[in-house]
């Protein structure tokens, strides 16, 4: 395995820490694109909303939550690949502030 390669299955479920060491969520999904023969990670999804996306159940899941009375749903973030420090894959850390991340409640594009 090359130095810049990490097995994604080992990252799933890992808790992401912010710059102060506070847990902000677990890696639940990874978005990548194929470039030639390689897959290149574009972003990581963390939090409960990421679980719904991982299960391809975003629209249905949100509908059920609204029926149950949840009006403001925010429980996840999208982390661009270059904003996550994986120097220690067992303890991934943000390279930016939490304010710089996109909320999953503002996504996904295909949920509309």
Automatic annotation (TrEMBL):
It comes from the Bacteria. This is PRC-barrel domain-containing protein. It comes from Hassallia byssoidea VB512170.
């Amino acid at each position: 395995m090359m130095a810049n390669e990490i097995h994604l299955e080992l990252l799933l479920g890992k808790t992401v820490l912010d710059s102060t060491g506070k847990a902000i969520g677990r890696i639940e999904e990874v978005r990548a694109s194929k470039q030639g023969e390689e897959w290149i990670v574009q972003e990581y999804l963390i939090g409960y909303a990421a679980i719904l996306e991982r299960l391809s159940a975003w629209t249905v899941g949100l509908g059920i939550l609204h029926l149950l009375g949840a009006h403001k749903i925010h429980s996840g973030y999208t982390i661009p690949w270059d904003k996550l420090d994986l120097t220690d894959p067992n303890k991934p850390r943000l390279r930016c502030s939490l304010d710089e991340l996109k909320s999953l409640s503002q996504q996904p594009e295909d949920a509309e």
